[in-house]
Write a structure and sequence with these properties.
Strand content: under 5%
Shape: flat
Structural class: mainly alpha
GO cellular component, one term: Golgi membrane
Keywords: Golgi apparatus, Membrane, Protein transport, Transport
Family: Belongs to the COG4 family.
Number of helices: 30
Largest sheet: none
Organism: Saccharomyces kudriavzevii (strain ATCC MYA-4449 / AS 2.2408 / CBS 8840 / NBRC 1802 / NCYC 2889)
Distance between the termini: 111 Å
Protein name: Conserved oligomeric Golgi complex subunit 4
């Protein structure tokens, strides 16, 4: 319809537009009329236009009326449809209203039926419960007459379990349940029966505990919750269990007390047996308690039992402390420690270590052996407590239905009497004092009984490659120390006490640093260093009196061989010619004596070096491997289950090991450096004097006249690598060096630990590299000289470093100098004398541009 209206409006607007346009045209023509004929034409035009516009207007009117009629008919049809729909709608609304009325009536009927059914069921259940109440009262009455307490208790328990708690006091029950045989009201009757049975059960329970009638005791214990006496039953049971624990503990102590002093470990066994009893009770009796009382009531029993266990354990600990005289021992240990500190400060230089140790031992009441046994027993006591605490904590969480991510000791353990006693009586401090005293005294004894291995079988020029970690020669003190530390560490770890182990680790680090590294090892090195002479060589040690007496007997009466002392014959001693021979002989005897002492001192020095490096291996094995890395044992997790203590201890152990290794490494590097600088440096210097030095031969075929003129003044001693083809194959110098080098270094390689030898070799290589670098910068080369130097340097490095590529890296600068000397002239830029840029990028040069230019200028037969 809207479309039709729009079309009509559009057509009317067109017609109006045409009329306006024609009118404007007629007006324009009127203004231009001048003749009659023009008027006629205009009239004719107007008539034509009129006719045409009339036709269009008639057509437009007809179409509009036709369209309007169509739209009217459509509207009439739609009105008819709407009237029909409205009629149907009213009919549907009426139907729905009728259905709603019927549904409400049905719902009300159903609700009424449900209420009546619920009332019937409630009445039925009430009647059933009343019948159950009456039957159980009758049953309990008959059972009580027959003294069948289990049946009576079961009947009462069923009455108490009725869902409707008000049933027993209802008016209906009061009228229906009483009978001629049982006339009392149900509530009063049940209350009286429960009171009566409570007394009977308690009496029978106590009688069963006295007669140890386990069957009767268990029966009575099961029936307490049936009559509503759960707490009483648990209290009686807890008291019974505590009496068992106390009796067993008393029995063990009384039966074996007279032998406790002789039998080491007695008190730890007593405590272990006590905790076994408690653990067995918790495990076995928990099944009965969980069945009759409920698993949650087990916590109540555990709390009572733990109090008695704490009491008995504290009693055992007190007797242990008194019997083993711990207080007196600790007092003596403190006196001994004070005496040691005083003597360390005031010890005179002429007082021996043995005298000090003997005086210290006399001040101690307990021997080291007895002290070790005491520590073991003490450790086992704490270990038993730690294991029991873990068991108790796990069971506590199990019965409390707790599942913590981190295990924590419950309040009966953490706040119990025994745990508080350990803290308040400073039991941990006493134990640590015993351990540290044993460690210090045993170490002093070990030093006094020190044994040093012989190195004579290892002092050979034949290389020995069958060393393992246990075959290196070390002082017996190191072996004793590691065994001693391991023994005491095991005792501390087994206690399962975080405080003890963390404190012991701190003390252990101090002990290694102060007692072993400083007071023992460093003092030994300093004492031996004073006995070492620079000209000493590593050879077999032969004590006085075995082979030297005959060898040097003649030297006291005759002069030494001229060949041996030929350098001395060149000097003239003014004013002492008459006594020259006597002085030489005296000096020879002194040298012989010093040489003998120095050889032994050098042997011991190397043994102590090995001891330092093996100490690092042993400490790592003791702490990291045996405690941290042994997954099969899980030592820390098993012994320290609470509060993530195992993780914390793992960090502490790692830090302790790191500190010990760092201090050991400092001392070992210092000792190796001294050995090199004072014993080997001069020998290495002498060996280097004859290598990488070529003199100009008189018959050399080199024809560089400029070079000859520069070197005429230097003569045969000028250091040059300007050689002929005859000299090129002569490797006698480097071969001689290699032979002498092997003679010098192989005994050290056979004796020293691999890491110690590498450190020594590193010092030697650093010195060699510095010396050879200075020497090579002073040389001049021809083409053959560069090639020969390359061969000799390769053989030299291989002989010194072997397969140790870290040491080979130290020669990188020298090898790059030789490499640069061997490059063709085309590799260099003539304008700068440095290598070309495109060639420079192929190497990671460690020599600078100035050094490359200097090295190029060392070659004489190059393109100018």
């Amino acid at each position: 319809m809207k479309g039709q209206v729009s079309s009509t409006s559009w057509e009317s607007s067109i017609i109006e537009g045409r009329l306006s346009k024609n009118l404007a045209r007629y007006t324009l023509l009127l203004d231009k009329l001048s003749t009659l004929s023009q008027v006629d034409k205009l009239s004719e035009v107007i008539a034509n236009d009129y006719t045409e516009q009339s036709k269009q207007l008639n057509s437009f009117v007809q179409e509009s009326q036709s369209s309007l009629n169509k739209q009217s008919r459509k509207l009439e049809l739609q009105r008819t449809d709407l009237t029909t729909s409205l009629t149907h709608f009213h009919e549907t609304v009426g139907t729905i209203a009728s259905s709603n009325t019927r549904a409400k009536a049905i719902h009300d009927d159903i609700e009424t039926v449900d209420q009546e059914r619920a009332l019937v069921n409630k009445t039925l259940q009430f009647v059933k419960d009343v019948r159950t109440l009456k039957n159980n009262i009758s049953l309990a009455h008959s059972a009580l007459k027959a003294n069948d307490y289990l049946v009576a208790a079961t009947a009462i328990d069923e009455i108490r379990s009725l869902p409707d708690k008000n049933l027993i006091v209802s008016e209906f029950a009061k009228k229906v349940v009483p009978s001629s045989e049982v006339p009392e009201e149900p509530a009063i009757l049940i209350k009286n029966w429960c009171k009566e049975l409570t007394g009977l059960f308690q009496e029978h329970f106590m009688k069963a505990t006295r007669t140890q009638d386990i069957k009767e005791l268990t029966l009575m214990f099961k029936m307490f919750p049936m009559i509503g006496q759960d707490v009483l039953g648990l209290d009686l049971y807890s008291k019974y269990v505590c009496d068992i624990i106390a009796d067993e503990s008393r029995k063990i102590m009384s039966n074996s007390m007279e032998n406790s002093i002789k039998f080491q470990g007695f008190f730890s066994q007593v405590l272990l047996h006590l905790f076994k009893i408690v653990s067995t009770i918790i495990n076995d009796h928990s099944k009965v308690i969980a069945t009759c009382y409920g698993e949650k009531h087990m916590v109540h029993v555990m709390e009572k039992v733990e109090k008695e266990a704490d009491l008995q354990a504290s009693l055992v600990l007190d007797i242990f402390m008194e019997t083993r005289k711990i207080d007196r021992t600790i007092s003596d240990i403190n006196d001994w420690s004070h005496l040691q500190k005083t003597e360390d400060k005031s010890k005179s230089s002429n007082q021996s270590d043995n005298e000090t140790d003997n005086e210290a031992e006399q001040s101690s009441i307990i021997s080291i052996h007895d002290l070790a046994l005491l520590i073991i027993e003490f450790s086992q006591i704490l270990q038993n407590w730690s294991m029991y605490s873990r068991f108790y904590s796990v069971k506590w969480n199990e019965f409390s239905n707790l599942h913590p991510d981190v295990l924590q000791p419950p309040s009966p353990i953490a706040g119990g009497k025994f745990a508080l006693k350990l803290e308040q009586d400073k039991i941990f401090d006493d134990f640590q004092a015993l351990v540290l005293n044993h460690l210090h005294r045993s170490f002093k004894n070990s030093m006094s009984l020190e044994e040093m291995p012989s190195l004579n079988d290892l002092v050979t020029t034949v290389s020995l490659n069958d060393h393992d970690k246990n075959s290196y020669p070390v002082t017996s003190v190191l072996d004793d120390l590691i065994l001693l530390v391991r023994k005491n560490l095991i005792s501390v770890v087994n206690t399962g006490q975080f405080k003890l182990l963390s404190s012991f680790l701190n003390e252990l680090v101090k002990f290694f640093q102060n007692q072993f590294l400083v007071k023992f090892m460093q003092n030994k090195f300093k004492l031996l260093q004073s006995k070492l002479t620079p000209n000493i060589s590593l050879k077999k040690y032969i004590p006085k009196g075995e082979e030297q007496s005959s060898a040097y007997a003649s030297s006291r009466s005759v002069s030494p061989p001229a060949s041996k002392f030929s350098p001395l014959s060149r000097f003239t001693f003014r004013g002492a010619a008459a006594s020259a021979l006597t002085n030489i002989q005296s000096n020879l005897q002194a040298v012989v004596a010093d040489d003998e002492d120095s050889i032994l001192a050098l042997h011991h020095y190397l043994v102590y070096l090995n001891s330092l490096y093996l100490n690092k291996v042993y400490v790592h094995r003791l702490l990291s491997i045996e405690i941290l890395e042994d997954d099969s044992q899980k030592i820390l997790k098993d012994n320290f289950p609470f509060n993530n203590e195992a993780t914390q201890l793992q960090t502490l152990i790692g830090n302790s090991e790191k500190l010990v290794l760092e201090q050991t490494d400092k001392l070992s590097k210092w000792a190796v450096k001294y050995l090199f600088q004072n014993i080997l440096q001069s020998k290495v210097r002498n060996l280097l004097a004859s290598i990488f030095v070529n003199s100009i031969s008189s018959n050399s075929s080199v024809s560089n006249q400029n070079n000859m003129s520069r070197n005429n003044s230097a003569g045969a001693n000028q250091k040059n690598y300007i050689i002929s083809i005859e000299d090129f194959e002569d490797l006698s110098q480097i071969n001689s060096f290699n032979s002498k080098w092997n003679q010098l270094i192989t005994p050290y390689k056979n004796i020293l630990h691999k890491e110690a030898f590498v450190e020594l070799l590193s010092n030697i290589v650093n010195y060699i590299v510095g010396t050879l670098e200075q020497r090579i910068w002073t040389l001049e080369f021809n083409e053959l000289g560069v090639t020969k130097l390359d061969r000799e340097l390769s053989l030299f490095i291989g002989s010194i470093c072997g397969l140790n590529y870290n040491l080979r890296e130290k020669f990188l600068k020298l090898t790059q100098i030789v490499l640069l000397l061997g490059l063709d002239d085309d590799s260099f830029d003539l304008s700068t004398d440095d290598i070309k840029d495109d060639f420079n990028g192929t190497f990671d040069w460690v020599i600078t541009s100035q050094e490359r230019i200097k090295a190029r200028n060392m070659k004489i037969d190059r393109r100018q």
